[in-house]
Design a protein that fits this description.
mainly alpha, globular, single chain
Length: 138
């Protein structure tokens, strides 16, 4: 599990710094907003990935689905409602940023699933070796 966390942390950092750097010519506030949106979406992707590692459906917990939806709605409100955006010193992001976040999120999800599969083929990192196959913890 720690290997997945390390890989996710590195990939999240790189993807966030890239979107920040791309948006910097448009202003610091837009660069901050893009990085802010990206980090939150990436963390939600990680949450879904962890649930898929344990073969738990996203719809299995209605409260979690509501929490994810409300998190995304609050995030959008902070970026697109002017008084909130001013409070956080950010500005609205454009369509390119949303596309970048969506593509990198899908790539992260795919990559994390691939890493999990590869790690499970290595005896040291397999669920059986860690004694977690039957406990449901990872």
């Amino acid at each position: 599990m720690w290997v997945e966390i390390l890989i996710f942390g590195v990939v999240l950092t790189i993807a966030t710094l890239i979107i920040f750097y791309i948006n910097l010519p448009e202003g610091l506030n837009e660069a901050r907003a893009a990085a802010f949106m990206a980090i939150i979406v990436y963390e939600l992707v990680r949450l879904v990935n962890i649930r898929s590692d344990h073969k738990i459906s996203c719809g299995a917990n209605v409260w979690l689905v509501l929490a994810i939806a409300s998190s995304v709605l609050m995030q959008i409100a902070i970026v697109y409602i002017t008084p909130l955006a001013n409070l956080f010193e950010i500005s609205p992001i454009d369509t390119f940023d949303w596309i970048y976040i969506a593509i990198t999120s899908l790539l992260m999800f795919w990559m994390l699933n691939l890493v999990d599969r590869v790690l499970n083929t290595i005896p040291l990192f397999s669920d059986e070796h860690l004694g977690q196959k039957n406990s449901g913890a990872k």
